[in-house]
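User: Before I run my own analysis I want an independent prediction to cross-check against. Here's the chain; please return only the structure tokens and, at the end, one sentence I can use as a sanity check.
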Amino acid sequence: MIRKHSLTLHGHRTSFSLEEEFWDELNAIAAERRIPLAALVVEIDENRDPRTNLSSAARLHVLARLKAAAQH
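Assistant: Structure tokens:
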């Protein structure tokens, strides 16, 4: 199920919608890296293609991370 999540990015509240499975993976990535979830989302936001929305960028980040892990 898709759920809207709210965070503060660069001092502004923003929200984006993600399936719970992607949200869980983002939390796992942040925990593995020992950084706050908000810091991870800021990184994703800063590195995303400006034509891509934050929800899609977050999904692509999770996908890339899982694909990289599968290759090791």
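Sanity check: The longest strand covers residues 2-9.
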